[in-house]
Structure formats: C-alpha cells, structure tokens
Design a protein that fits this description.
Layout lengths: L4 E7 L2 E6 L7 H4 L16 E3 H8 L3 H8 L7 E5 L1 H12 L5 E9 L3 H10 L9 E3 L6 E7 L2 H4 L2 E7 L13 H4 L3 E5 L5 H4 L2 H10 L3 E5 L4 H6 L19 E5 H8 L4 H11 L3 E6 L2 E7 L7 E6 L3 H7 L10 H18 L7 H14 L15 H18 L3 E5 L3 H13 L3 E6 L2 H10 L2 E7 L2 E7 L2 E5 L3 H8 L4 E4 L6 H18 L5 E5 L6 H10 L8 H4 E7 L9 H6 L4 E3 L5 E4 L13 E4 L2 H26 L6 H5 L2 H21 L1
Helix pairs in contact: 4-14, 11-12, 14-15, 15-16, 19-20, 20-21, 24-26
Length: about 675
C-alpha cells in the first residue's frame, strides 16, 4: 500500500473581485494607465497595490471601478491567489490517490474572510493551518478584457495585502516541513515569507522536501528598486534550493534582470535552479532540467493546447484569471502522481502537459478556483484534453521556409516559431545559413508605439539553397512549407520543390502537403502551380497532393540601419501587426491552429484589397509627395500636408468602391 503523499503550500490567498468585459483600449481605462515603471498606474498583465494606485489616480478605488466597469455588469467573486488556487486544483485532480494537500495561510475577521472560509471548505484542501487574524482579508480587484491581444485575453490586478502582512516564517509549523513537496506561491504578496524565502527553502531541502516556487508580479520590488532585478528572498542563494521554478515571461525577465528569454534562461541555470518552466500566454512554454528532480531536458519549448485554443475562440479567449495558477496545480498533480508510481526519475514533459491543459481549461470558468459538484469531476473533464495534447506534441511539427529574409524571419518564421514548430530555412546567403545553424535561433525586435519587445525564435536550422539533396529530404518528411522569395525566384524554387514532392510520393504515397505562398502577387497559386508542372511528370497528381495557399502580406518591416545589422546579423525588426491573411480553400491538410491566421473564403478579393488599396495608397502618397517635396524621405513628412493626405485617402476610397463592386 502506498504511503500518503503530503503537499504543503504557503503564500498568496485572497478574494478576487472580477470585473469581466473591460476594454483596456477604452478612454476610461486609458487615463489610469501607467506611464513609467512603478508609478502606480495600471498595466495589462501586471499588479499594482491599492494605496499606490489611489495616489496615482488621485481618487478612491471604488470611484475608479464605477468609472471603468460597464454599466449593468456585476462583478464575480471567487477565491484567488497563486498559492491557494494552484493547491485547490492539485487537490481536486489527486483524489484518485492517497494524498494530503494543506494550505498554510491567514484571512481577516471580516465578511470577505468569512466568504473565503466558506469557499475553501468546499474544496479537498486540508485547512488545519489556515488561521484567522486581525486586519482585512487580502483581496484583489481583477479587471478582465477577454478581447485583449487578438482575443487571447488579459487581466489587470489591483491588490490589497491586508492580513497577509501578519504572516511570516513563524507561522509555518514543523508539520509544514514534514512534507514530500513544499510549495511557495506568489510570496511577493506575502512580504514576511518573501523576504525570508532563502532561509525557508534551505530548511525545506534540509528536511528532504521537493521545493517548488511559483512567482507573481513583484510590485513591491518594482517600487523599492525601479528597473532593477527582482529579489527572491534575502539573496540569490534561494535559486540553488529550488527544485522547480515556475514563472511567466515577464516575471522571468524581471527576476533575471535580462531583456530576452534566452539570457533569462541562462541566468536561472547559472544560479543553480534544478529545473524551470516559463509560461508565456498563448506562446510556447519554455522549460529546462539539469537532471535533479526531473530527467535531464535541454532548453525546450512546448506549445499551448491547440484544441483548447480553437474551442476558446467562441469564448473570445474566455476569462484568463487563474490560468497560470491552474497551470501550476496541474504540474503539482503530475509530480505527485509520478511519486505515487515510485518513479526514480520524473518526467518534465508529463508535468508540463498536465499544466498546459489545466491552465487552458481554466478559461472556461470565471476566476481561478473551480468548485466541483462531486469528487473527480475536474479530472474527468481534463483527461480528454490531456490525451489530445499528448498526441499534438508527439507530432513534433516542422515547417520548411524558402527565404530567410525579412518576411521569412520576421513574419512567417515568427508565427510558426511561436507556435512551437521546428523551422528549417532555405536561403542563398551562405553566411546567413551558417549563422542560423551555429546559433539555432534568431531574435525578432518588435517595434511598437510603446517601445520594443524582443522575441527569440528557437529550434531553427537552415540549408543552403543549392543543397538540393538536403532540401528534398526535409520536404519528403514535413507537412507544411512556406515560400517568401519574390516572384523572380519562384521558378528556381519550383524545381527544387518538385524534386521534393516526387521523393515524398515515394516515401509516403498519397500524403498531401500545404505550401503557403507568402508572396505579394496576384494569382500566386496559379503561377506556382504552372511552375511546378514544368518539373513534374504528367502522372503526378498535383491538384490532389499539393495545397497552394495564397496569402495577403500586410506586414511592414521597420528600417534597419547598418549599425542595427552590425549589432546582430540575425536580428530582424518587425511591427506589432501580425495577422496573416490566407486562402482557407487552399489547404489540403488540417489547417495549423495559429492564432494570427485570418482565413478567408474569397481570397482573390483580399489579394486585390492589399494591392489596390494598401499598396496603391503607398504609391499615391509617394509619387504625389515627391512632386511637391522632392527632398522628403519619409511618408509621415509628406502626409503632414493636408492636400496630399486628402488626395491619397480619396484615391484609396475610390479604389475600395471599385473593389466592392467587382467582388
């Protein structure tokens, strides 16, 4: 008979007051947004304390909430907090084994505290160490915008620490450390624990516990040391006592003091963390293990659940409150299951798989905590998603992209890379091919109106365009291809692609492949089909085997100076706009579930829209502007002239009227 597995957690537990349906782009929110780091203003995805926000807004919080919440909407109250929500979820999933999941924390004597107590008693948590103390119950106002970030959803948090000020190491009994797993969750919102985290982690390891830390946005750290690396306990020694560190993208950057994820990952490895998981919304989850708690795993990315992403489109992304906390709970449950099976070495992929489907499924209910009607209910709901996700990641998708230029890397490569595809570029530039293979990644610097975002695309290789044998081998094994080389180079590419298609037919007869034509040209599908025919035997079933997918590329690449190129030969600049318009009817296989895909039934109209409105607008402004201001360089200079602006707009609108009539 297996012994009871003990999981003890301490950290953030609060009452969430969730306001759904907020629009972060509205004027009512805009005036309360942060202008400089740590100023107390609101920022999507971040937390601010009530007192700092009231000072920033120069009014009481209640008045602000009345101002920004939609008329007629009612806030939803739920249990929140990175510690307690993750433990609730783990306890619910683990009711099929002998386990005791305990939460050590405090609440106030007020109505909010009574609400919290009544709700926690509906869960499988052991609450023997959950105490009542003086002061208000910790609480958070959660502003939720389900339409934010292309309907992926995001929240803003306004927190009152309350009675959590009274909770410190002295509140953790010996029973806490007499556990198989100890979890410190969101301790930045429990200052007494956070400042003593180094000592608590060292004590836990001395007692033989598995140590897990899941972080939260550290607004206190940002206030005390603006722009500096966040502290995790008294010193950086904390990291070497952590078996598993779980954080999101922004927390990872701030804890490491780095600007990109690769450098942040290197920091945590150098600090001695046994393993880490870094979530990033609907972008891939990064992970690593040196071989302590889990079997060794080199730096690797895992995608989100495509099944859940697809389903949640009908929910406009759902409510993302508590997704990260449920992710942690899923990971904890997997660790406990693996310990119960008496595995000597644990599997990180399994833990991430349960975390991924747990975090995704959380979007279906408002607030992080789910209250079961019967034991085992939540596990039964998640099992089908887990099975589908395991099949998804087993597929290990790869795309071959002809053209590693600006659009190839900044747009097509970025979209597929962020969806956890392995990317194989094909290019004529020998030095570029060598550098991509040497580094296995490249940075995309997204230039937006509010600054830069640096994204590193991993799992990248490259082949020289003249190495036909290597290219053919890849084509014979992949299901997706993209081409971004310009019209003049398409016939040469067609010859190589045709050889790959024939090899593919020999290797896996009857299997189709989709080719995304990332070219700004009319009837690109017809042009490339005829180019392929010139190199294929008449017997090859081209129309059945090959999906030729036209696109409309509306993404612009900001100018890079020679200094930018010298700083990093692989970096590419990009604008934030990331929507790829594609011909839905062009695909032969299942369409990749990439959130930036905009699938169209009437593709010819969208191609003409790009050429005869977007491109025509640029041309009109440029030619007319040159007549009046031959010394001007940039569009904004000539469009400052009201006559040029008006004339350009009229031309574009006239063209739009013609296209509406044609289509």
């Amino acid at each position: 008979m297996n012994k009871t597995i003990k999981i003890s957690g301490a950290g953030c537990c609060l009452v969430d007051q969730i306001h759904p349906g907020i629009d972060f782009s509205s004027s009512s929110i805009e005036r309360y947004k942060s202008r400089t780091p740590g100023d107390g203003g609101l920022h999507p995805g971040r937390l601010v304390f009530t007192e700092q926000f009231e000072a920033f807004a120069n009014q009481k919080l209640n008045g602000v909430i009345q101002d920004i919440s939609q008329e007629g909407t009612t806030p939803v109250f739920n249990i929140g907090g990175p510690s307690v929500v993750s433990l609730i979820h783990a306890a619910q999933l683990l009711q099929d084994i002998q386990v005791e999941v305990s939460f050590h924390g405090v609440r106030g004597e007020d109505k909010a505290g009574q609400f919290m107590q009544s709700k926690l008693e509906l869960t499988p948590l052991n609450l023997n160490q959950f105490k009542v103390t003086k002061g208000s119950t910790p609480s958070t106002i959660v502003l939720s915008d389900p339409g934010y970030n292309n309907n992926q959803g995001e929240r803003i948090f306004i927190n009152d620490i309350g009675a959590a000020w009274n909770f410190g190491p002295q509140e953790l009994s010996n029973d806490f450390f007499d556990s198989d797993i100890v979890v410190f969750g969101g301790t930045a919102l429990v200052p007494g624990l956070h400042h003593n985290l180094t000592e608590l982690l060292e004590r836990s390891k001395a007692k033989g516990c598995i140590t897990v830390v899941n972080t939260v946005y550290d607004f206190h750290g940002e206030l005390e040391h603006p722009g500096q690396r966040w502290r995790l306990g008294a010193s950086s020694e904390s990291y070497r006592f952590i078996d598993l560190l779980i954080m999101d993208y922004e927390e990872a950057l701030n804890l490491s003091g780095m600007r990109d994820l690769n450098k942040a990952a290197s920091f945590f490895i150098e600090m001695g963390v046994s393993s880490y998981i870094i979530t990033n919304g609907t972008d891939p989850t990064a992970c690593y293990s040196y071989g302590g708690l889990f079997a060794p795993v080199p730096r690797k990315n895992y995608p989100v659940s495509l099944e859940l992403i697809e389903e949640l489109k009908d929910y406009r992304g759902g409510d993302t409150t508590g997704c990260g906390d449920n992710f942690v709970g899923g990971v904890l449950a997997s660790v406990a299951w693996q310990l119960n099976e008496k595995r000597k070495v644990l599997n990180l992929e399994e833990a991430i798989s349960w975390g991924t489907v747990s975090g995704g499924y959380c979007c279906y209910h408002v607030g992080g905590a789910y209250f079961e009607k019967q034991p085992g209910e939540k596990l039964a709901l998640l099992r089908p998603y887990y099975a589908t996700y395991k099949e998804q990641i087993k597929a290990d998708p790869t795309i071959i992209i002809f053209g590693a230029g600006k659009i190839g890397r900044s747009f097509i490569g970025q979209l597929f890379g962020r969806a956890a595809y392995k990317i194989v570029f094909v290019d004529m530039d020998e030095s570029l091919v060598h550098e991509l293979n040497s580094r296995g990644s490249y940075p995309v610097v997204i230039k937006g109106p509010k600054g830069e975002e640096r994204v590193v695309i991993d799992n990248v290789t490259a082949i020289h365009a003249l190495d036909t044998e290597a290219i053919v081998e890849v084509i014979s094994n992949v299901n997706s291809m993209a081409i971004s080389v310009g019209k003049a180079a398409l016939p040469a590419v067609a010859k190589t692609v045709a050889a790959g298609l024939l090899a593919r037919e020999e290797k896996q007869a009857g299997h189709s492949i989709d080719i995304i034509l990332a070219e700004n040209m009319r009837s690109a599908d017809h042009f490339f089909r005829e180019a392929l025919r010139a190199f294929l035997p008449a017997s090859y079933p081209l129309n059945e085997r090959v999906g030729l997918v036209e696109t409309s590329i509306g993404k612009m690449v900001p100018i890079m100076t020679s200094r930018d190129l010298e700083a990093d030969t692989l970096q590419v600049f990009a604008e934030p706009y990331n929507t790829l318009i594609l011909d839905k009817k062009g695909f032969k296989r299942t369409i990749p579930s990439i959130k930036e895909f905009a699938l169209k039934e009437n593709m010819k109209a969208w191609v003409d829209r790009k050429a005869f409105i977007h491109n025509l607008g640029h041309a009109t402004a440029a030619y007319f502007g040159y007549l009046k201001y031959p010394e001007a360089i940039y569009m904004y200079e000539i469009l400052a002239d009201p006559k040029i602006l008006s004339f350009t707009k009229n031309v574009m609108e006239q063209s739009a009227a013609i296209l509406r009539k044609v289509y």
